[in-house]
Write a structure and sequence with these properties.
about 240 residues, alpha/beta, 9 helices, about 40% helix, globular, disordered C terminus
Length: about 240
């Protein structure tokens, strides 16, 4: 079974793929990008070739080159480099998974195929299993983003018994606003020590803004009444 060198947690940056004005990948700035994330933002984990990185708009060759550059430039600077290897073609996903293992990535992630969609949990797991098997030494993460894939199989349902089918499974990137599903994933899998990455950035930002507004309003009330305000904890979703 594959285990990460340490659990994937904290902030994980979904990296963009830098382009030139001519639509070619601008590899020359990726090293600067790594330094910016680490030194300026304190972020040491990245998710490459995902939605933000427009991985599915790149050719397989381009995706391989982008992955290689991030792993190379992130060596001894980044803690974990997770490569998204999802594709409509199973063979392409397997090729990208094998490549990620060869270049020293720390894990792979896969979305559900979204043209000929899996309509049951078992069909989806069989697809994921085939991809994970192509890189048996790497931790495997499922990328749950139903708004884009159209695959509505609940993540909580998918996780039930998944280690029996995919022993390298280590967690999921949850990019959906169904917090009941997300909460059940976390609650029902505490013993497994899975990593749960919440990927709807806009939702988190709005929750943070709401919190700040409430905090400022509370401070105003305190200053008017000259009282001490006991501040509670925020009700944020898990950010891993």
């Amino acid at each position: 079974m594959a285990f990460p060198k340490k659990k994937l947690q904290g902030l994980v940056a979904a990296t963009i793929t830098p382009m030139t004005e001519n639509g070619e990948i601008n590899f020359s700035v990726i090293g600067q990008y790594v330094d910016y994330l680490v030194k300026e933002q304190g972020v040491k984990n990245i998710f490459v070739n995902g939605t933000t990185g427009e991985g599915l708009s790149l050719s397989v060759s381009e995706r391989r080159q982008v992955a290689e550059e991030w792993v190379t430039k992130g060596k001894d600077k980044l803690d974990q480099v997770i490569i998204h290897v999802g594709a409509l073609s199973l063979k392409e996903s397997q090729e990208l998974a094998q490549h990620a293992a060869e270049i020293g990535a720390d894990g792979i992630a896969v979305i559900a195929p979204f043209f000929l969609k899996p309509w049951t949990k078992d069909i989806l797991i069989n697809f994921l299993k085939e991809v994970a098997a192509a890189a048996p030494a790497l931790p495997f993460y499922y990328y749950h983003i139903p708004a884009l894939t159209g695959v509505k199989i609940r993540a909580e349902e998918l996780l039930d018994g998944i280690l029996d089918k995919i022993p390298t499974f280590q967690g999921l990137k949850f990019s959906d606003t169904d917090l009941l599903d997300f909460g059940q994933c976390v609650d029902q899998n505490r013993q497994q020590q899975f990593a749960f990455l919440f990927g709807v950035d806009e939702f988190c930002i709005q929750r943070f803004i709401n919190f700040v507004v409430k905090l400022e309003n509370s401070k105003l009330k305190v200053s008017k009444n000259q009282r001490t305000l006991p501040l509670g904890t925020t009700n944020f979703p898990f950010l891993h």
